Every structure is written in C-alpha cells, then in structure tokens.
Amino acid sequence: MTLKPAMYLGQHFKLSTFHCLQVTLNRSISTQGRNRHSTTANHDTQFTVQDPMTGPGLPSGRPSHRPLKSLPLPALLRTIFLGQLFASPALSNMGMGMLSRLASTRSALLDPDRNIILNKVLRALVYNHFCAGNEQREIVPVLDRLKASGYAGVILQYAREIVAHGAAESSKVDVSSQHIQMWLEGNLKTLSCLSKGDYMGMKYTGAGQRIAEALKAGDEPPAEFSAALHQIMRTAQAQGTRIFLDAEQQVFQTTIDRWTVDLMRQYNVDGEVLVLNTYQAYLKATRGIIRDHLKLAQQEGWALGVKLVRGAYILHDIRSRIHDTKADTDASYNGIAQSLLTRSYDDIGTENFPKVRTFLAGHNANSIQRAAKLHKNLVLQGDKPSTLEFGQLYGMADHVSGELLLRVEAAREAAQHLTGQEAETQKQVAPRVFKCVHWGSVRECLHFLTRRAAENQGSSDRLRDGLLEARRELWARLRGN
C-alpha cells in the first residue's frame, strides 16, 4: 500500500516509518557540510550541539529539556521532512527553481490558485508549514494555538507583494485604485484576526505597481494610498495592535524609511509605540540609519520602533552593500541590539535617550540568547533597558522559539515563590516571544515561500541543529515522555 502525502506527514505515521526516518536523519546529519563560516551574509550561525540528549544553551543539560514539546506532531514531522529536503543540494535547488518559476509564471496551468492539483501539492509540501491559510476560519485557529502554547502574541501579515524586477510587465495590468483597495481590505482583514498586544506586518509594495514606482522614485505617497494607510493606522490604534512596516528591496528602502518615519512622528507619541520600522543588519549602512532615526526621535519628541532583522533580500540586493562576511553581519546585529538595550548608541548617550521599542526578529540562536541574557542582567541590576520582544517565522527556528518559551516558563515558576518587587522583577525578566505568520492564497504567498526556501538553502548549520532537536523531540514522544 502506498502512503498518501497527507498520511505521510500526518498523525498516522507508523513506527516502522519513524525508524526509517531516524536512520535517514542519522546519515544526513553526519554528512552535512561542516563549514560554519559562510561569507553569505544572511546565513545564520547556530550553537554547536554535542550530544543528542543535551539541548543547546541548556542550564542543566537534563533530558527533560524539550524546546519543541509544544509543537504539534504534523508540524514536527514537516520540520524533519523539509529539513531533509533543504539539506540536499540537488533537491533544494530543484525546489528553489520550481518555486521561482511558479512565482513569476503567467500560465494558468502553473497558477496554484487556478490549478487545484498543484494547489493541494504545494499546500501539503510547503504552504501549510509556513502560512496560516487564506480565510479567517483557517487563520484564527492557527493563531489561537500559538498563543495557547505560550507565545505572548502573534505577528500576522498579508503576503501579497511586488518584486522590483517584474515592474515592466506588472504595470501593463495594474489598476492602481483596485490594487490599493485590495491592499486596504487585505490589511483590515488581517487586523480583524488580531487582538490587543499582537502585531500586524505590512508591505507598502503590496498596494500595487503605482506604489512601487513611487517608492523607487522617492515620491511622496499618493493621496489615495495615504488615505488607506491612515485608515489602517487608526484601526490598529483603536484595537491596541501594533504595526511593523517591512523592509523590502534596496531600490525601495530609502523611501520606505522616510514614509515610516513620518508615520512614527504622527503615531508614536505620548509614550506609545504604534509603528515599528524594519532594519536589516546585513546592510553596511544600517547602524548609521538607526543612529540618524534615534537623533530625529530625540530632537522631535517621538518614540522609535525598531524591528531588527538580519536581512531577507540577498537574492535581489546589491552585494557590495551587504557585509562582506557572516561574522560582520553577526557583529552588526549583536552590536545594534546591545546599543539599543543599554540605551547608549554611538554618540547618543543614556541621558535623554529617546523612548525605543526593540523587537529582535531572527533565527540565530547565539544572537537571540545573547540579547535575552543581556536584557535579564540589565533588569536584575535595576536598570531600565528598552522594551524587548523576540520573534521567529512560523514554521522556522521552532527550537529557538522553544528555548525562549522555556525561559518564560522558568521566570514564571520563579515568580510564584516570590512576592512584591522580587516577583515583579522576575516577570520583567521573562522574554516576550511572538511567531510571525503569513496568510494569503498559495499564489500570493509564493514570493514569500521562495525567500524562505533561499534562507533555508543557505543555512546548513541551522538546519542541522533544528533537525537534531526535532529528532530528539520525536523520539521523546515515541518513548512516551
């Protein structure tokens, strides 16, 4: 009997299949590349796992330490399956080529929103692992499950976007008013799925080619787009949901920064932070850009929202503007995070340092754990570090998220045995952890999925560590732990 893909990835996996998977994992992990110093700037260096029963970054090393204990079985199995896929250069290149072609095709046969069979295949293989769905009835249960498993909240984002090199072809069919209206409705639909304390991610280019062209030209936002944008802001503000403005390709980014700073001037006032801009640490100019924005916030009296990422557009960005080595990108990310948390950034001292909300989005466990420890130490010393939150993408780096959730659990347990200020301090020590979830049709999510494939393809160390942790969790469940 031949197993159907859904059964292969579902909860009816047979024990013999688990055994075969274990053998395959042992072989693949032992033969994966050992080079931990890639010069590609967006590759993530991870902690070294020395013992399959000792988790990364463990305070005690006990076998009961299970960062993936709350991960549903289907997601755990897909993590192993996709990790195996991306660990193979041949299979990974084939998958990347397929996704890239589907993302740019104009053929109805290759359009997953029209081709039912292709839609089901993509959903089973990648879409369901990285995306929440296309309708509210699909999306909300995913968000509820994440919150129930310990996350402080979620980041939800409509995946539709414009890719710069497709501008000439896209403009022939673009109807700007219709695209802006679709973008507005998509973001309002996103907000309707969220609650107070959650985040919504947003891309300006999702509003269509006219907006992409305005970004490229350095223009002011068109009036119709501006009205839609402020409607979204007011709706988010009323329900207590914050907004991330995503970084995009360099051809758009200078104008994105300017438009977003204008939003922060208007909405990040009176001690509140509604809007956060995204800064990519793999770009050489990023530290200076954040410094300039801090000075503006300091001079003009508004709060700066910083979402720090490593960078996701290496396939499109100009290579010379990206840090030369992986180590340089690590130093950039870690240095920016430390300066923001300690409220001492280059020539901007702690005195009159502007209010900052810092969100560290990343899959590099060393960087994330380093920031979490620094924040904890600052709190215990009685300092008042910048507000800090963490986030990882849905379907990726679950072991990194899990380590943070274990910190949350430990801090809460410690607080139960304390009273007064000591208990309050323990609560402040607990990191706030989020998962970033994308939604949209399979076709709308293809550019996002292509970038995720590229990121996985270039991160063999992270994949190896993720596979080891997933394997350990799988066998813990088989043993009935």
Automatic annotation (TrEMBL):
Task: List the InterPro entries hit by this protein, alphabetically.
Answer: FAD-linked_oxidoreductase-like, Proline_DH_dom, Proline_oxidase
A GO term (biological process) for this protein? L-proline catabolic process to L-glutamate
Q: Where is this region: Disordered?
A: 31-65
Q: Which residues form the Proline dehydrogenase domain?
A: 144-464
Cleaved signal peptide residues: none
Keywords annotated in UniProt: FAD, Flavoprotein, Oxidoreductase, Proline metabolism
Catalyzed chemical reaction(s):
L-proline + a quinone = (S)-1-pyrroline-5-carboxylate + a quinol + H(+)
Any one GO cellular component localisation term in the record: mitochondrion
EC number assigned by the record: 1.5.5.2
Say yes or no: keyword Magnesium present: no
Protein purpose: Converts proline to delta-1-pyrroline-5-carboxylate.
Q: Which family does it belong to?
A: Belongs to the proline oxidase family.
Name assigned to this protein: Proline dehydrogenase
Task: Report the source organism.
Answer: Cercospora berteroae
